[in-house]
Amino acid sequence: MATGVLRGAQAQVKAAYLTAADIAGYTLARDELTGAWFVSGTVVTSDAYLLAQTGLLFVAPHKGGAWRWVIESYRVAGERFEARLKALT
Amino acid sequence: MSIRVRRPATERLELSQGDFLIVKQDLTAGEYRAFLRAATKPIGLAAGGTPAMELDPIAAGEAMVLAYLLDWSFQDADGRPLVIADQPPAVVRAALDHLDSASYMEVQRAIQAHQTARETALDDEKKTLSGGTGPDRTLMSVAS
Fold first, then answer.
1. Burial of A32 (0-12, 13-18, 19+ CB in 10 A)
2. CA dihedral A76, A82, A84, A85 (to 10 degrees)
3. Do the Cβ atoms of A66 and B87 come within 8 Å?
């Protein structure tokens, strides 16, 4: 069961500082049983090379900075992006 | 064979008054093309019908700054951090536009100097790497 839902207009998948994908209309949710965070959204632009790299981050900018999560796993199906996230960095 | 993709790396450039910039060490080919697109404007056809481009010095300076700049230590008029890290390009551009002109030029000069230094370093690196005396594959295969 998902709790702690957070929605945002735009975010990015990053490989270091390089943008692997621009994500629009994302939704972050936390599974209350496992504590795991999940995110889904729409892929606006993507870079296949960078998406194949390890150590990807999900970066959601906010007014005073940005939240950054390590991406544990992800999948892209058409324009749909879904990822399981590790700790907030 | 050689590695032609660099891992993303950053450098810290020191500025006056204890400030600093965090910049990309090098641009990727895609970033370099985007920089060139932003720095030039088409001016019609040259002799022979080939498309001609002209460097726009004002746009080129801003394009170079936007291509390299990742973060900085700058604060706004109220002393709050002027956040640009991980922000959309429009936010970074707006922050640059609101710097005082001397500060903007200091940023641009620092990044220009960084770019020049990296070009020299990469040239030196190529000379070092191409000077190897390892076995030549073609000759080895001919010999065997």
1. exposed
2. 100
3. yes
Domain boundaries, position B39: 10-124
Give a yes or no: residue B22 inside a domain: yes
Residue B141 lies in a domain: no
Domains and CATH numbers, chain A: 2-88 (2.40.10)
CB–CB of A88/A72 below 8 Å? Answer: no
Query: Is 0.80 surpassed by the pTM of this model?
Result: yes
Kindly determine whether residue B87 and residue A18, on different chains, have CB atoms separated by under 8 Å: no
Q: Mean pLDDT in runs of 10 for chain B (144 residues)? A: 90 98 97 93 78 86 97 95 92 96 98 97 84 50 42
B86 inside 8 A of chain A by CB: yes
Sign of the CA dihedral running A18, B8, A47, B62: positive
